[in-house]
From TrEMBL:
Name this protein carries in UniProt: DDE family transposase
One Pfam family hit: DDE_Tnp_1_4
Ranges where the Transposase DDE domain occurs: 11-437
Organism superkingdom: Bacteria
InterPro entries, A to Z: RNaseH-like_sf (IPR012337), Tnp_DDE_dom (IPR025668), Transpos_IS1380 (IPR047960)
Species: Hydrogenispora ethanolica
Span of the signal peptide: none
Amino acid sequence: MFDGIRQSNERLITASGLSIVGLLLQKTKLQERLNLHRLKDNAAPHIKNHEIVFAYIGLLCQGKSDFDHIREMNSDPDFYRIALGIDHIPSSETLRQRLDMAGGQWRNILLAENIRILKATGATLTPCRDEYIPLDIDVSPFDNSGTKKQGVARTYQGFDGYAPIFAYVGAEGYLVNTELRKGSQHCQNHTVPFLKETILQAKRLTSTPLLVRLDSGNDSSENIEVCREPETRCHFIIKRNLRTDSPQMWLDIAKENGTVTHPREGKTVYTGSVQWTLGNLQEKVRIVFRVIERTITADGQILLVPDLEVENWLTSLTLPPQDVIELYQDHGTCEQFHSEIKTDMDLERLPSGKFETNALILELAMLAYNILRVIGQESLKQNDSPLRKPVLRRRLRTVISNLVLIATRVVQHARKTYLNLGRSNAWVQTFTRVYEAFAF
């Protein structure tokens, strides 16, 4: 055992990775654009808008969302000011009041600067197949039960909360758009303008063909029309809501048009595609189907009446049906991205009681999420971290715990300030390389 604990006067910082966060924020025009946007009744005009935003993004990049966590920066204000590139650290009261005042006024600025960060860092967008860049759009309810916050209502998952929608681009899962919604709002409500905005945002990042993937809640001809418009043209796979379609009808279609496989005794799988007239669309839509007919269960029980399972997907792709189905199944990866926002960044229970403020916080979280993702992807470019298992992307929790919450000793020498990393830290080489990658 140790002989005891002593306190020293050394400047030890436990969130030194904010120095990298600050470097990435400096690659945007947030400071210039936010400070031009004057807010009425500003009680602390000496604290600039960009200082509010940079400080709060610094909290989010540590996995902290509560306003009171800003007080931790007062333990060494000089370090945090240098790291984040600000002159003042706001109090928790000023932070809350300024975000309340801004509400939805900064959305367009944040969306544009979010894209600027990804472009400035050369973020690579990995296709899901051939040349198709996935653009996954999905709603993920936030549980805010037991609160009286504005907009909290019963969600489709059976708890009280919000129902925000997210849009991720590339296999890496960069966040290109988000929108806070009331818990009771149907997922298709206001999705058409959100889809248009999202596709245009993604097209600013890449000229490679986009593949929009949507769940069955967004089975609407309006979404297909958006994907067919010249300005927002892209490929799509949309899970179809069968509504009143008869399973027997699809079995008949499958037997006539499908390819048959027998994975085991008593189980027959039909896959294929047909052209379908949908709603008011002038051009027919391709429907990929999979019909599973079971006469014997997996444990050997013989069924008196065959069990039918029918799935449909609306798509613009001309790939074989099984490839389309596999591409849609990969859409489930965005559930992991939702989890990282909810748990790794501690954002499921949003901190404000005001809907507009929480909407702004979610937009700031979009920038923080991408900053963490960029840091994680940069860390993978060389095999110098203690984690040697090959992965496509670094989980945000790993980035926060090993590259943001990394302890250093602040040393001043010859009018210069250095961050000294301990020799026992296994992430020293990775941290140094990532910092230098964004320092120039």
